[in-house]
Design a protein that fits this description.
Helices cover 50% and strands 11% of the residues. It contains 6 helices and 6 strands. The longest helix is centred in the middle third of the chain and has 29 residues. It is globular and about 55 Å long. The chain starts with 8 loop residues before the first strand and ends with a strand.
Length: 226
């Protein structure tokens, strides 16, 4: 592989649980979801030289899936659930204020370093009342972000085709960096409606829009609903 890549492999948590922290920038994989793991394997294969044929790779994956899924399930079942004492609200708020102030100092120092390095494309928004948006970006970061979005969209596209059935997908494409669009047969649209909960979860977990269109006269679907 010509470049370094990181895919967090989640054993006892779901992708949506990574709501904060440094791992949110990576394409995490839920080890309990076969389609998700297959998308990871296919993505890794896509970066390899030479690549293994998709049909051959899928056959081997299906053959050995149980050998992986059963031990992982045993690990999850063996993980003890600790009783965590409930903290006082005042303690939590005090800790949040402390963390916000620490982050504010760190971001200020980082902005100075970036300014001294000559990076001018810098945007920050950070207040103690609304510490929900902190952005320090340069052109390289923007490009990396777009690449990450497109990679996420590709992975979601693979999983959607597995859910609907590849034979029912006539065409697929990515638009806007984080939106996947499909043109499906009438049966494909029916399958999409039947799997609406699963498709909606994919769109939410990966923050990728999913649009499915059918033949003329057949109503399509979008996740999230736009």
């Amino acid at each position: 592989m010509g470049e370094s890549s990181l895919i967090p492999f989640l054993v006892d948590m779901q992708v949506k649980d990574l709501s904060s922290g440094p791992l949110t920038q990576f394409q995490a994989t839920d080890s309990s979801n076969k389609d998700d793991v297959w998308a990871m394997v296919e993505a890794i294969n896509g970066q390899c030289e030479p690549q293994v044929g998709t049909e051959r790779l899928r056959t081997v994956f299906d053959r050995f899936w149980d050998d992986l899924a059963v031990p992982l399930s045993s690990i999850r079942d063996a993980t003890a659930t600790a009783d965590v004492p409930q903290r006082e609200v005042s303690d939590i708020l005090d800790e949040l204020v402390k963390l916000v102030r620490e982050q504010h100092v760190r971001i200020g120092s980082l902005e100075k370093v970036i300014g001294n390095a000559g990076v001018t494309n810098t945007t920050s928004h950070y207040t103690i009342n609304e510490p929900k948006e902190v952005r320090i970006t340069g052109e390289t970061d923007d490009q990396a972000g777009r690449t990450t979005q497109r990679n996420l969209a590709r992975r979601v596209g693979v999983m959607v085709q597995e859910i609907i059935g590849r034979s029912h997908v006539e065409s697929a494409g990515i638009s806007g960096g984080a939106n996947v669009k499909f043109t499906c047969t009438e049966e494909g649209v029916v399958r999409a409606h039947a799997a609406s909960d699963k498709l909606a979860s994919l769109a939410t977990d990966y923050r990728v829009g999913i649009t499915i269109r059918g033949p003329e006269g057949v109503e399509g679907v979008s996740y999230p609903a736009f």
